[in-house]
Amino acid sequence: MRHEFSLEPFQARLTTSYMGRRFLFYPSLPSTQDAARQEAESGAPEGTTVLADQQTAGRGRLGRQWVSPAGANLYFSTVLRPDTEHLRSLVMIWPLAVAMGVEDVAGLAARLKWPNDVLVGPRKLAGVLIESSFRGGGLDYAIAGIGINVNLDVSLLGELRDTATSVSAELGREAPREEVLAAVLGRFEELYEAARRGEPVHLDWKARLDTLGRQVRVSFGDKVEEGLAEDAEPDGALVLRRPDGSRVRIEAGDVTLRG
Ligand code: BTN
After folding, report:
1. What are phi and psi of 171, to 5 degrees?
2. Is the pLDDT of residue 31 over 70?
3. CA gap 208, 222 in Å, rounded
4. What values do phi and psi take at 71, rounded to 5?
């Protein structure tokens, strides 16, 4: 069933001091990333959040498309202005915040796939896309875009059906998008503030990483590495043990499981 996104229950549940306090809702956008970027360029404060009920050109990592039908899911982008030092933490904090927020509202056990997918069982529930803009040698802002399959009917997905899931597919009933969004923004602000205080948030991220201990193939740029995913470092990099025993550190890439 299609439900409108309602501002009132979202705002009533929002516990943050800045995340989502400036909030822009659009029934349809090509991509919330571009609208949030325009906001950032015009000086919007940290935490500004742009949500669209549907996207006509939703994008994922590595130039992929993000399926974004109306009335079902969450597609939002947030304006952040971290120090360069905390930019890499966003890659860990966002998926962790999504996993925790979904657990808070729906009670689902969500896990993470390196670097920043949220899984339930083997299937993908949510993805995170971080785009940053530099000016004068420093970080000007980052736009973090999050797509969460909340009430998506996965039977409509065609070939993605085996690899994607939604909160409703897992629960067997629909979940309120407004509550999920408020919970995720709340969890994000807590974790982001903890990271800025110097707390080791990567440990919670690492504890949920399903990728560790698996034989994987990681592609990045035109390179491929294979081996045992042995560790994840405090800056979010993955450490692989190659078959010849050597170790390699990978900062970003795309993981597939091998056996
Ligand atoms: C991925 O897993 O590849 C990242 C998916 C990110 C999708 C979100 S939906 C909101 C924002 N707008 C976009 O066009 N993409 C991100």
Report:
1. -85, -25
2. yes
3. 28
4. 75, 15
Index of the ligand 1 atom closest to the CA of residue 64? 3
Q: Is the CB of 48 under 6 A from ligand 1?
A: no
**Distance between CA 49 and CA 60 in Å, rounded?**
18
Q: In testing the pocket of ligand 1, which one of 5, 146, 148, 184 has its CB within 8 Å of the most ligand atoms?
A: 146
Could you tell which of 75, 113, 123, 255 is best to mutate to test the pocket of ligand 1, judged by most ligand atoms within 8 Å of the CB? 75
- Contact predicate 102/110, CB 8 Å: yes
Residue 200, preceding peptide bond in cis (omega within 30° of 0): no
- Cα 189 to Cα 179: distance, rounded to the nearest angstrom: 16
Q: Establish whether residue 77 lines the binding site of ligand 1, counting it when its CB lies within 6 angstroms of any ligand atom.
A: yes
- 50-54, 80-84, 159-163, 237-241: the lowest-pLDDT one: 159-163
Please determine, for residue 259, whether its predicted confidence score (pLDDT) is greater than 70.
no
β-strand 49-55 against 23-29: which pairing, if any? parallel
Query: What is the atom index within ligand 1 of the atom nearest the CA of 60?
Result: 3
Q: What is the pLDDT of residues 86-136, one digit of tens each?
A: 898 999 999 999 999 999 999 999 999 999 899 999 999 999 999 999 998
